[in-house]
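Exercise 7.
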Amino acid sequence: MWAANLKIPDFKAFDQRQITQSTKIYDHTGEVLLYNLGENLRRTVVRGDQISRNIKNATVAIEDWDFYNHHGVRPTSILRAFINNTFTTGNTQGGSTLTQQVIKNSLLTGEKKYSRKIKELVLAFKLERAMSKDDILSLYLNESPYGGNVYGVEEASQMFFGKPASDLDLTESAYIASLPQAPTYYSPYGNHKDKLEERKNLVLRRMQELGFISTEEEKVAKNEKVSFLPQDNFTIKAPHFVFFVRQYLEEKYGKEIVDRGGLKVITTLDWEMQKKAEEIVKEFAPGNESSFKAKNAGVVAMDPKTGKILAMVGSRDYFENENDGNFNVTLAHRQPGSSFKPFVYATAFKKGYTPDTVVFDLPTQFQTTCSPIATDPANQTNPNCYAPENYDGKYRGPITFRSALAQSINIPAIEVLYLAGIRNSLSTAADLGISTLGNASRYGLTLVLGGGEVTPLEMTNAYGVFAADGIYNHYSGIERVEDALGAVLEEFTLSPRAVLEPQIARTISDILSDNIARTPSFGANSPLYFPDADVAAKTGTTNDYRDMWVVGYSPNLALGIWVGNNDNSSMEKKVAGFVVAPMWRKIFDAISVNLPKESFERPIYTYQSDLNVKPIMRGIWQGGRTYFIDSVSGKLATDYTPIETKVEKADYDVHSILHWLDKDNPLGPAPANPAADPQYLFWEMPVQTWAATMGYLGVTSTMPISTDDVHTSTSRPIVKIISPGGGMSFKMSDRVVVTFLVPTHIYPLTNSELYVNGIFIGGGDASRGSLSFVPINTKLLPGTATLRVVVYDSNKNRGEVEDNIVLIE
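Solution. The predicted structure, written as tokens, is:
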């Protein structure tokens, strides 16, 4: 009975319903409105005879192929949707005809209840009896969403093509018919134009299959180039970020809920940071374009401790039509250049390599089917040969991992990738959140120079792992989502995942913030240098100068910047440190000004004093047999030689790193047959050539024969405590003056130190003969206390003496 009483909806109420139930997107405070999806709603209703037959046919072909034959519903589609929704998880599948969609869009809520579906079916039958097919189709076309705040085919036609819906040609109609099912995803102003093109072609194919057009018309329309008008500048803040969030919401909740569900969306965006980032990008953009032919830029700022997106600038200006400003480059796949190198070095550190491990920066041929002589003319004409150059054309000989990464030298990085392994390096990148690289079989040794493609969003997120001591927090733009009644649909939850050992993350941070190691290439005062803060940074420039990057971080801010051209054209042949770094630095300073200053946790390096670690991994490249000398006497060190004057040396027996270790087990035994490694000859030959040029070949042992005679059992200073006498008592508030005498010493005295119960109290000039302290001002407690006076001479010989006193309350 209730079904008979259901009335056909009043379609004039459509506009008001859309506005009152519109979704609103806010910044992280919940106070700054970024976008009201219902604000400035655009919809122009036209009669059916004012709508092109092309758009009518295109819509029927893609949305409801049997529209002209059914009576409002298709039972088979309903059954298929019921089975899918009952037995699968994820988004529900619709079985709606165009008639049902008119009912759903006009009267009913978007709730997924079977009672609502029954109402929809009943009303669809009634509407089919009350109106003609063409009128129902016109209602649908007047009410469908076509992206942003645009509803109805007339408004869409004017916005996209500047013409009324009656004048739409076949290709234009196919594009517009492609949009309603996912207008944000398929938007011609978004990041999925390739998918829009695919769907447009699907519409045309369906039209041909249904007899609406001929095969020849389909072919012509597929190949026709259509120009979309520039996007209007409507009221919106942080547009790239807003549409990033909107797409996420549509994928999770469905576009109907997003369009009409009245959601309140609190995002992670910091509007103050966003404004500053946008302003600085606009400030630098004209100069980058005129000086470097770099028209576009993208910025992502994140909190590495949470993964929350703080700012997202997808182009120099969202509404700048000439440069395709609505395209969000932070979500685009771009080559990372040398900014990929930290993932490779981190992989090497995981295998046991150290920051002091030495490789050789020399002209090297890496393709084992070519001549091992990098400069061989035969190699120059063989496209398969691979002998890359450094960005500055220089070669540095032996260089540590630390210096090679800090200075972004290419040839050592390729060697490190070989040592670390391509598959292992890709696995590390994937663990850190890089999802776009695919299978290892796609790559060779060029991977370390940015041979794959990544997104600025994921790169910034991945660098945040280094900032967070190896903890990965997946990026998020959502703080909280509420429905129209205030119920919380989702809320940000921290989901940390340990993906890298803290020691390795800290090592990367230590290197990327090491200004001394970076200085030879970047200078002592580059934009990457922060004298009063812990900030790590890495540049990246692709070989063809199509992409330039700086990605950097402090413990509480990760900031990635990409500069280039959307059409993938090359820029001027400059490195990113010159083009991008000034803008990156200004943004970093501007958005971090109110963040607390935090310091990186320092890595603990134990390998330097571990003689079980091979010399080549402790910075010694001269040879594999080492010995210690005393730096003062120049003779062999003894047990009396102070650690400060011990220097490890090696007999000259210069080889590449592959001579000394198994690349897959660097901490294990040396290889019995180094030449078995396919790269051995190709690395060894340039090293031997260099060693001969430098005069290192044929050098006999330089190990001294005599031993250190500066530091002996008799050369140490002899120290005596004059006062206080043994067992004397002092109040905790008394000043204790310790006087001492050094009656015997060979070399001039330098400094003295005082320890009490092993705690360093202070030091001074040894010639003064006294040191003092007040117990209450130290960490000492009442009771017996052991005084220890240590005296040094000019050659680091050390003499010491102890005595006891008693401390009382």
